[in-house]
Fold each of these.
Amino acid sequence: MPSIQFRNWRFESAKYAAVQVAGYGLDILVFSLSLRYLSSRPSVAYIIAKIIASIFAYLSHSNFTFRPHKPRNRINLSQAMSYFLLVAINVPLASVVLYALLLIVSSPYIAKILTDGVFFLVNYWVTRSFVFKN
């Protein structure tokens, strides 16, 4: 029988994944709209989409994923700064990976999905360990 700690981790990681899937939907939508209507280059569209999706993700993670039993009336400034520092590091690194993949893959959508897949697990660990630590 799994321990309570392991069950809690599974539940938390499932919530993290659910928020990330919802955020990814928003990310892809903004990426697509930026490419289509703003005539953005893929790297610029990527950055615009990441900024908007990261705001959604931070609010969702802070209120749902990592703090399910503590209602929040305000933003924890320290956590927010840590989260957006992670985003500030992640977006340029991911943009470089996206650019490199675009040299190999012709579709910006495939390159974006591959890029985001590379960063998903690392971001969970960093978010859990350093931003929303208990």
Amino acid sequence: MACLYGKVHPYRDAFEVFLPGCFSESLSEKTKVVFSIDHDQSVTLGDTRSNLELIDSEDGLAFRLKSTADDLTKLSDRERMSVFYRENEVDEQTIDGEKVRFIKRATLLDISAVYRGAIKQTFLTIRDNETGPLDVKSIASESVAVEHRRVLEEYSEAMHAYASARRRLN
């Protein structure tokens, strides 16, 4: 998933939430969207006019990129996704003393494979030769599984660090 809707994430001095359908207008206008690495326009792997398919749903923005072996090398260990966009309509509110920006309409310009995305639950999964329509519901549930795996990995690392520190103290 390139972007998940309804997920609060930090953005500059505030928080931000992409609302479902915020990219619908730009997607229906067939605006060219690029797939890049770290939002670097000099390192692109494709676009919506050639090998990138975008699927908008209530859960978020899914994608499929037809790529080459060379493209996979460029991805390195990047597992997360990020979107670059131009805001068209934003609703700013103060909630519990915090500024929250609700993105209602935006023009999607770029999706990128990144090491760390603003929305932690976004992810990049590499699959071999998938064809047919994307099943966004299964992708959304895969997002939950990916996030659980990340949490377990972080917990395991913390437990190893804790055990190592205890051994040094004894």
Amino acid sequence: MSGMDLEGADMRATDCRGVNFSQCRMRYVDFRGANIQGANFQNVDLYGSKMQGVEADGADFRGADVRHVNFGGAYMQGAIMPPPVQDVDRKGVRKYLEESPKTPKVAETPETVKGKVKDKGIER
């Protein structure tokens, strides 16, 4: 199945154990309740897909776009996941940080922390 366009497919409760989905376009696919143990999702576009309750033990999601994918109640033991998503709404984050009174204005490094401690009469 590698490289296929399966956008919006209904894969609910299917047995996809060990299937190679690499390089597929699978946006908004409904996998709820499916068995995808050991399946290969490397470099798959899964944006917005539904994965609630899937059995994904040993599935490989390296390089996959898992933004807005719902894995609620999924069994993921041994699954290989991509690094955390980095493309957040930076405008919203910036607004939150500017409004948060606990946000430090300068990054705390060991040197600045040491200086603060020393200023209070405590040395390390």
Amino acid sequence: MWSRGDVILRREILNDGRSWVEFPVRVVRDDPELLATYIARGTRMRLMLATGRLADTSVRRDDEDAKARVRLDQLERLMAGSTPPADWRVWVEDMRESERLVHGGTAGAVDEPFYARLRAYALRAHAPVPARAAIDFLHGLSSWNFGEASRAGQTLIDARILDAVDWLPISLVRNGIVVARIQLGDFDGARAAFKAYSRNADVDPFTARVLAAYLLDQERRRGE
């Protein structure tokens, strides 16, 4: 039996036994009499992407859903071709928001076809290295692939140092790469990533303090 809050994969099975669609749901209740699950907004977006129903007004739920579908539809139309956007940094911002819409409430369950389309488009349109790293970083965090998040995060840090450009929000990259490296047991790498953003301690200050305290505690333990 599952616990309340678990994210599990639900499959819709055809009469011949084949699965025609699968999507993550969050467990609300699981007992011998009932399995109740919650379908997050991100799951609904995935289903509409998978079934080509982003433009189907008959499934409109509310204004927020409508806005989410318009944003996703615009991104998908651009990615269907090979024309690069007018500004790759703006595209990364739009991509990040679309990624949030697709994965909201589905932690650990990644929409791999969505990421495959992102990567294929970035390759065809000759996206700059940091833009491709932003895709990999978000994928690493969403899939809990901490090695991927660490490597891609370093590329984003390098771009920040060399070009003075932040391709993703400061708090997202700092917190994400530090936590990824802590999970990997790479405390020196986590500390280096944290120091790369030392001038931005006022961005999400509570999380910054928690991470700094944890790294300091680990340093003391290792010094014993």
